[in-house]
Amino acid sequence: MRQLRRYLPALLILISVLVGWEVAVRAFNVKGFILPAPSAIWAALVTNWTDGYGIFPSARVTLIEALGGLAIGTLLGVATAVVVSRFPRSRDTVLPLAVAVNAVPIIAFAPLANSWFGALSPVSKMAIAAALVFFPIMINLLRGLTEVDRSALELMRSYAAGPTAVTVKLRAPNALPYFLTGLKIATTLSLIGAVVGEYFGGLTETLGRVVVAGASALRFDVTWSAILVVSVMGIVMYLLVIGLERVLIPWHPSVRGGRSP
User: Fold this and answer.
1) Position 154 in a domain
2) Which domain holds residue 241?
3) Is 80 inside a domain boundary?
4) Backbone torsions φ then ψ of 84, nearest 5 degrees
5) Structure-derived torsion over alpha carbons of residues 143, 147, 152, 155, reported in degrees to the nearest 10
6) Tens digit of pLDDT for each residue in 4-49?
7) Residue 161 to residue 236: CA distance in whole angstroms
8) Model pTM?
């Protein structure tokens, strides 16, 4: 009940926006190709859920691509952060490369990934999503592994704890909130990477292709319905990470209502 009250203002604001949107579109007779009404978007979603543009089967493919990219990017980010924290001298080499990967525009990387792994292969979309996921995971986890309380570190060393024991018993618990913060960012980025990759080519049953096909046919109600599904998937993935956070770090201020890292 307490959590429901917490999100109630946001829900009321969302309902107000949708009602105002519907009223404004109908009052000013806004054309559907400019901005369809929420009722038209919902009708297109219901009509094309399994038939027509097949939004539901397309959403399943896009979700698999996003989750695959999220897993790959997370594993690479965790591995890189652990190595850099264990060998500080590698930071000057690894961090510029990581920044360079993060700075590559997605619209430039997407055609390259399609060329490397095949435009029809979901692996190319996973690679694009992984490239977006990698940096926030790596940089947040690295911060958590390195920004350890000095007195706690000295205490561990006074007990003759080795590097592995320090990492497992001190650095890893300290890094967990930072990792989960990066994972929240990465969930939405993985969907962005998958959808943008699909825009540049892929299977016909993907949300990215539904967006393109709907816009090409001037069915912007279908396009908006696909965008709605992507948004809902992003929200659900984000909420799942929040749930994981409450299970893993109930002691942290970010969960108890304080400031997050």
Assistant:
1) yes
2) 47-256
3) yes
4) -65, -40
5) 90
6) 577 778 788 888 998 999 999 989 988 888 889 999 999 999 999 9
7) 41
8) 0.87
Look at the chain and report how many structural domains it folds into: 1
What is the Cβ-side half-sphere exposure of residue 113, based on CA atoms within 13 angstroms? 29
Enumerate the H helices of the chain as residue ranges: 2-27, 38-47, 55-86, 91-103, 106-117, 122-146, 150-158, 163-166, 172-199, 207-216, 220-248, 253-256
Q: How far apart are CA 53 and CA 48, in angstroms?
A: 5
CB 206 within 8 A of CB 200: no
Angle between helices 55-86 and 172-199 (to 10 degrees): 140
* Radius of gyration, CA atoms only, the chain: 22
> Minimal CA–CA distance to 176: which of 245, 108, 98?
245
Whether residue 8 is contained in a domain is answered as no
- CATH number of the domain at 186, please: 1.10.3720.10
Query: CB–CB of 231/148 below 8 Å?
Result: no
Q: Are 206 and 230 in contact (CB under 8 A)?
A: no
Q: What is the DSSP letter of 169?
A: I
Q: Where are the beta strands (DSSP E) in 1-68?
A: none
Tokens 């080499």 sit at which residue? 93
Q: Is 236 exposed, middle or buried (0-12, 13-18, 19+ CB in 10 A)?
A: exposed
**Rounded to whole angstroms, how far apart are CA atoms 71 and 81?**
15
Name the residue among 146, 135, 147 with its Cα closest to residue 182: 135
